[in-house]
Amino acid sequence: MKEDLSQVESYWLQQLQCNNEQVLALLMKQYYTDLYNYAARLSPDESMIKDCIQEVFISLWQRRDSATAILSIRYYLLRAVKNKVLKALYYNNRKASPVHLQAAYNFSYEFSIEKLIIDQQVSEEKAAKLKRTLSQLSKRQQEVIYLKFYQHLDHEQIAELMGISRQSVYNLLHETIQKLRNLWHTEFVAR
Amino acid sequence: MKDFRLYDITDFVLDEDFIRWVYEKREEDEAFWDQWLQQHPGKHLVIAEARRILESLKTTQTAVPAPVVTHEVERLMQTIREQHEQPASITRTYKIGWYAAAVILVLLAVAGFSYKMFLPGASISPYSYAALTADRKLVEKKNNSDMPMHLTLPDGSSIELAPDSRIGYARNFDSAGTRDIYLSGEAFFSVTRMPNRPFRVFSNDIVTKVLGTSFNIRSFESDTTIQVIVRTGKVSVYTMADGSPATRTAANQPGEVILASNQRLVYAKAAQKFQKVLLDNPVMIVPAAADRNMVYEDAPLEKVFSTIAKAYDISIVYDNELLKHCTVTADLRNETFYRKLELVCRAIGATYEVIDGQVVVQASGCN
After folding, report:
1. Alpha-carbon torsion A93, A98, A101, A105, what sign?
2. How confident is the model at residue B85 (pLDDT cuts 50, 70, 90)?
3. In this predicted model, which residue has the larger pLDDT, B169 or B320?
4. Residues 9-68 of A with CB under 8 A from B
5. Domain span at residue B36?
6. With A95 labelled, which of A2, A108, B182, B309 sits at a CA distance of 20 to 30 A?
7. Do B140 and B184 belong together in one domain?
8. Which residues form the FecR protein domain (chain B) (predicted)?
9. What mean pLDDT value characterizes chain B?
10. How far does chain A reach from its first CA to its final CA, in angstroms?
11. B305, B178: one domain
């Protein structure tokens, strides 16, 4: 249902194939914030993230002759950024100390209290409570709600991106919302 | 058809239709859920809780500042141009195999050729109508008459196309994920609300994204400015070019300006600057009947201002603390927006100014 590929996007992909650099710049500009925010949840290393995003666009450019095979630009870019960041984390960690990839892969739902207060006019106290609640979710749980409610990917895309089955995405989402409700209850009602 | 009666809170939170209602506030959804709640009054608490969860998950995005993005885009462009010049020698931040290098060499020849085809002559802006619509798959409408031309789009949105203006949209406009229109000239748009499929108008250097609304865009290639006027609803406007410092004014998000009802946005092409101004004669966005209630006797100022602000969807800024004892006795029916303001201000000995699309009231207080 959340089909990303609009006519203008397929037009852009065609233009990429025709070596139109402007379109590559446009795509980066369009998706930069979303990609950066996603990557920032995987690693706090800002300059590494920026390099990874650069590399993703460079390889998109290098493979532009097959660009029209891309079905959803957003999903393609998110997946490419995730792979690059995880790879970078893996190599960096191998150099420093032998840490497992999964441990290095630390998804966190960064939550800007200030923005929440401005956007939704909630009190500082309430925003802090929300932040505390979200930080109590597991990394997987944080990732799944991020992909669903912020990036608006569909369940199939989430499944592929997280490397789990669709049924697991469904279960994970249910379990996460359930947990969120319980946490909320303790934060807001029990006090 | 889903049976929402069987849904628990979690089911609602995860349901696409429910999410759409909470996040996008479409009119048809509002109507559906209002009615559904009336039929199932026992579900009010469940719905309220599900809504609250969704709302608290909604906005967590911090935009990457425009200068950072601009810098990164420039960096990318530089790398790519270096690749064109010396395809085999770029190894600074990434590795490139011989195979890829070879591919690029071959493609270079193609690049030089097709670039000319798409951008005929250096004088044309990369975002001109011609450049944006170089693809020939668009449905195009041109108004050669000297009367406005009425058009209906496949999604039901309507357009009044001014003389000497043209629009283009994709053949599969109705099935694509976003509804994109290319405009050269001037047009008034009444957009059918479909928050899942944003409506975007590309007009030279700027893009106007609609959050459900009616609005006017004037963007002739010969003009020095591009103007967007919003009658109802909200639109967001951003530039095609990278966010230069000038575009970062007045907006909470860099490079993007949110424009509300009765506001006009002027974009100066040369300076790449946005300026927000109020319309000369703002119209009410609420039903005209609201006007009939605008008779006040010793009414608190706060109430009067908030009624006016809501009726026209225009912010009125004033010192609430200082003016909290002020009351107004006035008959504001059948007056224009500015006349209403004038009458209220006179009643409390205040003056007002319009700054950046907002009304700012200055006064010394009341006893």
Report:
1. negative
2. low
3. B169
4. 9, 11, 14-15, 18-22, 24-26, 28-29, 32-34, 36-37, 50-51, 53-55, 57-58, 61-62, 64-65
5. 4-58
6. A108
7. yes
8. 150-235
9. 75
10. 41
11. no
Q: For residue A106, what pLDDT is reported?
A: 53
Tokens of B272: 């790449």
Of the candidates A1, A34, A150, the beta carbon closest to that of B16 is on: A1
Beta-carbon separation of A7 and B172 below 8 A:
yes
Pairwise CA distance, residues A147 & B315, whole Å: 35
Same domain assignment for residues B134 and B17: no
Answer whether CATH 3.30.1490.100 is correct for domain A7-97.
Answer: no
Of B278, B303, B335, the position where a domain reaches its end is B278
B199 → chain A, closest CA residue: A6
Cβ neighbours of residue B44 closer than 8 Å, sequence gap 6 or more: B37
Contact A116/B14, CB-based, under 8 Å? no
Residue A53 has pLDDT above 70, yes or no: yes
Cβ-defined contact of B110 to A19 (cutoff 8 Å): yes
Which pLDDT belongs to residue A14? Answer: 83
Q: What is the ipTM of this complex?
A: 0.78
Which of B59, B100, B118 is closest, CB to CB, to A116?
B59
Q: Is B332 within 8 Å of B296 (Cβ atoms)?
A: yes
pLDDT tens digits along A106-118: 555 555 555 555 5
CATH number of A113-189: 1.10.10.10
Q: Which residues of A touch B200 (CB under 8 A)?
A: 8
Is the CB of A167 inside 8 Å of chain B's CB atoms?
no
Tell me if B85 is assigned to some domain: yes
> In this complex, is the C-beta atom of A109 within 8 Å of any C-beta atom belonging to chain B?
yes
pLDDT of residue B361: 84
DSSP calls for B63-89: PPPHHHHHHHHHHHHHHHHHHHH-TT-
CATH number at residue B264: 2.60.120.1440
Same domain, B274 and B138: yes
Which among A58, A112, A177 has CB closest to B53? A177
Same domain, B229 and B91: no
How far is C-alpha B221 from the geometric centre of its chain's CA atoms? 21
The answer to whether the CB atoms of A174 and B100 lie below 8 A apart is: no
How many C-beta neighbours within 10 Å does residue B129 have? 24
A·B CB contacts under 8 A = 148
End-to-end, the C-alpha distance of chain B in Å comes to 61
Please say which residue of B278, B297, B312 terminates a domain: B278
CB of A173 less than 8 A from some CB of B:
yes
Q: What is the pLDDT of residues B116-152, one digit of tens each?
A: 333 333 334 556 677 666 654 788 888 888 888 888 8
Strands B358-362 and B316-317: parallel
Confidence of residue B101 (pLDDT cuts 50, 70, 90): very low
